[in-house]
Amino acid sequence: MASEFLPILVLMTVSAVICAAMVTLSWVLGPKKTTPYKSSPYECGVAPQGDAKERFPIKFYLVAILFVLFDIEVVFLWSWITVFKDAPLDFKLFSGAVVGVYMILWIIGDAYVMKIGALDWDEATSLAPEKLLADAEAARAALPAPVPVRQGGL
Amino acid sequence: MSYQPIPTIDWWAIAPVSIVMVTGIVALLIEMFRPNRNNNTIVAVSLVGLFLAGLSVVPQFSMPFGSSFGGMVVRDYLGLVLQLLLITVCFVAFLFSEPYLREKRIAFAEFYQLALWASAGGMIMVTTENLLMFFLGLEVLGIALYCLTGMCRQELRSEESAMKYFLLGAFGTAFVLMGIAYLYGPTGSLRIDAVSIAVASDQPHFVLMALFGFGLLLVGLCFKSALVPFHQWTPDVYQGAPTNVTAFMASTSKIAAIGALIRVLAAGAPLVSYWFPIMFWVAILSMVVGNFAALVQKDVKRTLGYSSVANGGYMLVAVLAHVQAPEKVSLASTLFFITGYGVMTMGAFAVVSLAARDGKEGTRFQDLHGLWHRAPFAAGCLILFVASLIGVPPTVGFFGKMFIFNDALAAGLLPLALVLAVTSVVSAYYYLGIIQAVFVQEEGAVKNESGRPQAGLNLAVLLCALAIFGISLGAENVLKFMAPAEDGRQPVAERTVAQR
């Protein structure tokens, strides 16, 4: 049983050695003449400005999560449809009921997301006033005093 | 192509879980339309739904026990009692949550839906012998609790605790899932008795894999039930979460995790010689670390958090006694203690939740000073809850600890019994500290700004207080009800052994 996988082990070892050699050798042998310009983050790009640690809106994450959910839904439905086509009647009824329940829950959840305006990116219109107020207070409380952005560059 | 046969369906067995789930969905629909701009309708619907779910559990005690849905759902005493308990705990939490949420200015009505779903997840966990169903319940419970922990968005502490809970909880979940995978590998079974199958196969490497998987499963479960050395998240999360969530989480999560732990440990009987010494030390460490760390806390919620770790240790002693000698020691005292724990924890946290006012909340000991002036009834009941947590005689806490002590002795686990007794005495010190904080009113004490109790809170506290006396007065009957050995129904450990 062990000998069966021996070639794979050999392959992994050889590739590890080659990778390590490539990285190490170029690091050891390569010439190192640094200039300030060379060691800037983007040697060939625009000089960076400001601080990297900034707060930024993460609204896309909701879209991403919803996308994953819809993806999963399709995976379930697709496999079910494939089996459903020529299944006996009792299986059709049973699995149909199960998928029906699943879809109802799905639709309710989706309607909830729409109704509370989770996809509406303009928060002034989407959030209930008391939520907006609470969030604004929270944001004020959470943020440190504003600091002027340092001008970066070379 | 072959089709899976349609499994036998026992609608009663899933009725409680379904009712709680559907109640959550109905509450969500109400939240979508928000007819009155307040949560009163949601609370009312949730309470009615929980009541119905409780009603649907009761007739099942006289129905035939066994599994349905192809082994996904199981009906037995353990599951039914714990389901009833989870429903009750959720009910009490809802009674005092609304005033608290208003005082704390938390505009997050999804509390009720998420809490209902978390309860349903816990109920799934305690009524299944299928590892995947168990995992599903764990996740439904866990994810809902992560959101609830962070629902106080004004407070950085709440956010921080949600983050910690989420990261560490995801870690624990990963352990559980890896454990299930390693149990499935050698046996091809997702049932909880995969360990027995692996041992029966007589293949050493199968047994080794099952042992590894079982170990991972135990790590994950100890994590969820906050046993030392997997307890580090507990005090931070208990302190950071809004108090009503802490109360709900302390009870629900512990009840569900210990319920699952009972089944898993009972199913792990073939490997008992490997894991027993480890769990033995986990129990001792939980009791010692929980109680001694609680001594030096300055925050009531942290103290209660460590006390919950210690109580987990007591429960583990009872479970170990049952697994060690299933023919002599029934699960009754475990269930009795868990019930008592749920009631007294809910009560204590309900009173502590009075510390919130006008969007602020202080839960250090000095923030509770003079509480008895403004809320004499709640403060009076707090004495009762604390007395029960210490284990003063006529309360349920005393009987629970006494039964566990006797069980441990009967199973020949003298060291555990002794540690339990000694650490219980130690615990009196910090519990009395809570009482002292409530009743002291010194010159120059921190000016107290806590809110006034409302009808819902008084009702919740009253229910808990009545339960503490009611259960302990009828201790004998409750114990008999929880372990009806005479009518031929086997306790969990014996049944699993019999299947093997």
Description:
The complex is a heterodimer of chains A (about 150) and B (about 500). Helix content of chain A is about 60%, strand content about 0%. Chain A has about 150 residues and is mainly α. Chain A has a domain at about 60-140. With about 500 residues, chain B is mainly α. Chain B has helices at about 10-35, 40-55, 75-105, 110-125, 130-150, 155-185, 195-200, 205-225, 235-240, 245-265, 270-295, 300-325, 330-350, 370-375, 375-390, 395-410, 415-440, 455-475, 475-480, 490-500; strands at about 65-70, 75, 355, 360. In chain B, α2 (about 40-55) packs antiparallel against α3, α6 packs antiparallel against α8 and α10 (about 245-265) packs parallel to α12. Chain B is globular, with a radius of gyration of 22 Å. Residues about 485-490 and about 495-500 of chain B have low confidence and may be disordered. The chains are: A mainly alpha (about 150), B mainly alpha (about 500). At the A-B interface, α3 and α5 of A face α1 of B.
Gist of the model:
The complex is a heterodimer of chains A (154) and B (500). Chain A has helices at 6-29, 60-84, 89-115, 123-126, 129-142.
- Total strands of chain B: 4
The largest sheet of chain B has its strands arranged as 1-2
Hey, roughly how much beta strand do the residues of chain B contain? under 5%
Shape summary of chain A: flat
Write the layout of secondary structure elements.
The complex is a heterodimer of chains A (154) and B (500).
Chain A: H1 6-29, H2 60-84, H3 89-115, H4 123-126, H5 129-142
Chain B: H1 11-33, H2 40-57, E1 66-68, E2 73-75, H3 77-103, H4 110-126, H5 131-149, H6 156-187, H7 194-200, H8 204-224, H9 233-240, H10 243-267, H11 272-295, H12 300-324, H13 332-352, E3 356-357, E4 360-361, H14 371-374, H15 376-390, H16 396-410, H17 414-439, H18 455-473, H19 475-482, H20 492-499
Antiparallel strand pairs in B: 1-2, 3-4
Helix pairs in contact in B: 1-2, 1-4, 2-3, 3-4, 3-10, 3-13, 3-18, 4-5, 4-10, 5-6, 5-10, 6-7, 6-8, 6-9, 7-8, 8-10, 9-10, 9-12, 10-12, 10-13, 10-20, 11-12, 11-17, 12-13, 12-16, 12-17, 13-15, 13-16, 13-18, 13-19, 15-17, 15-18, 16-17, 16-18
